[in-house]
Amino acid sequence: MHIISFLSRWIARITALTLVTAPAWALQPPTGEVILTISGKIGETNRDNVAVFDLEMLQKLPQQTFVTKTPWDKKPTKFTGPLLRDVLAAVKSSGKTLTALALNDYKTTIPAEDASLFDVIVAHKIDDTAISVRTKGPLFIIYPFDSKPELKASKYYGRSAWQLKSIKVE
What stretch of H or E contains 109? Predict the structure, then answer.
C-alpha cells in the first residue's frame, strides 16, 4: 500500500513539474507562404531567431476594420487586418522603434508607441478584397487617419508602408 501511495505522489510531482517547466509554444510555425518576418528585440520566434507569419496566422489574430481617407486614394478606403499592437504582442516585442521594409525597398521608421496610441493595422484586405502585390499588398501598415486630426499629417502618411515584408524591432 505504501508503494502505491509513494508511486502516486511521485507521478503527481513529475506531472506537475512537467506542466510547470514545459515550454509554451505560443507562435506556431507557418504552414503557408511567409508574408511577414519580424526580427530584432522579440521574445517569441518560430524560425531561425525571427518570427515569420503566413496570411492564415495573421488572420487568426483579432481583426479590425476601419474606413479612412488616404493621400493615395480618391475616396475613403476600407482596411482590414490585425492591430499592429497585436502582431507585436504575438512576438513579445520589447523595442522602442520599428523599421518597416517593403517589397520595393521602401523603408520607414515607426515609433513603437504608435501601436499603443493609435489603432494602426497590418491590413491584408482593402475594400474587403485581399491585397495583391500589384495593389499595395500583400500587407499594408495603415493608420486610421480620419480618427484623430493629428494623424492627417505627412509624418504619419510616411509611416504607412504598403507591400510590407518585414519589421525590425529595435
Answer: strand 107-111
Of the candidates 38, 162, 40, the one whose C-alpha atom is nearest the C-alpha of residue 107 is: 162
CB atoms within 10 A of CB 152: 15
| The predicted structure's pLDDT at residue 11 | 44
Tell how many helices (H) and how many strands (E) occur in the chain. Answer: 5, 12
User: In the block, which residue shows the cell 479590425?
Assistant: 64
Determine how β-strand 164-169 pairs with β-strand 97-102. Answer: antiparallel
Q: Pick left, alpha or beta for residue 149 (phi over 0 → left; psi -120 to 50 → alpha; otherwise beta).
A: alpha
Closest CA to 141 of 167, 123, 153: 123
Three-class SS state of 2: helix
**Nearest CA among 109, 124, 117 for reference residue 155:** 109
Tell me the per-residue pLDDT of 126-160, one tens digit each, with 9 for 90 and over.
999 999 999 899 999 999 999 999 999 999 999 99
Residues 71 and 49: their CA atoms lie apart, in Å, by 36
